[in-house]
Each structure stands twice: as structure tokens, then as C-alpha cells.
What we know:
Rna Polymerase Sigma Factor, Chain: A, Arc Repressor Mutant, subunit A, 2 domains, 74% helix, 0% strand
Amino acid sequence: MKATSNEQALLKGLANNDSAAIELLYKENFSTIQTFILANNGSYDDAKDVFQEAMIALYEKAQTESFVLTCQIKTYVYSVCRRLWLKRLQQKGRFTHPIDNLEESISVDDDLEAHAKHDAAYAIMDRALKSLGEPCKSLLEGYYLQKMDMQALAAEFGYTNSDNAKNQKYKCLMRLKKLFFAQYNIGE
């Protein structure tokens, strides 16, 4: 996929130190890189460092007349960040496979598409959870997010015993599942 004219304009803006173009590039690309780094033994600061290095590389490339972007900017940035992060992991001894065999430009369209699908599914789950209502929302959050056991949930929500709390949690989970898939199937 070739870079669009909008992306070419962004590259031109980057080469000319246009703050609006730089800010847009950060806004559109950093969260993907942050998610990748955090999922691969990194921290938020690691993500900022690697992303900054990739932006510098893109800036330097954009300033040369001979540079032609043959993919989307997000693919290029992700590819550079992935390579930089894998090199760093290898240097720290956390990544054991040699990365010399990796291609210079890694195809990440499938990874980005999967990431976009996950983001969409999380957004649908968030909407479904918000529309679930009480006490189901609090009960599920207590169990799954706060890691409360059934005895604690029974006491918190006034159920006579942990079996009743477990039964209610199951009913709430089924309602959430129904709400989620009703919205999820509309999106496909």
C-alpha cells in the first residue's frame, strides 16, 4: 500500500518542522507503539524513547529528496519501533532470537489490523458494561477487576451465601455477553 497524499503532506510537514504535522503523527501513532512495547516487557518510558527514535528516523528520511514512502506512515513507524525494541531487548538479554535475520522493513499490516480489531472489541465491551446497569456492573467489576472472592461479593452485595453470589455473577455475565455480541455483530 502506498502512502496517501495526506500522509505525503504529513511527511512534508514533518520535514519542515510543522508542529501541527508532528503533533498529528504523535497522536495517530504513539498509542499503538505504547501498546506494543508494554506487551513486550517494556515500560511507558521505553515506549516514549523508542517512538522518539523512530520519529527522528522518519524526520531524517523525510528531509531527503529521494525518500519515497511505499507504505502507510503507521506501518513504517511500527516497523522501525518494532526493530528498535527487539534490538534493545536483545541487548538486555531478554530476547534470545537473533534479529539479524529480520527484514529491514517488517510487514505489520496484519498486526495493525488485529490491534484495531482488539481496540474496537474493547470499546464495544466498555459500552456493553456501561449499559449493563447495577448491581451487575459492580458485581462483575468486583469479581474480575478487584479480584474479590465469592464470600466477599456475597457480603458486599447482601447475598445469603457465596453460591447465590456465584449464581448472580453468572446471570450478569450472560447479560453482558448478550449485550456485547448484539453490538459486536452489528459492527461486522
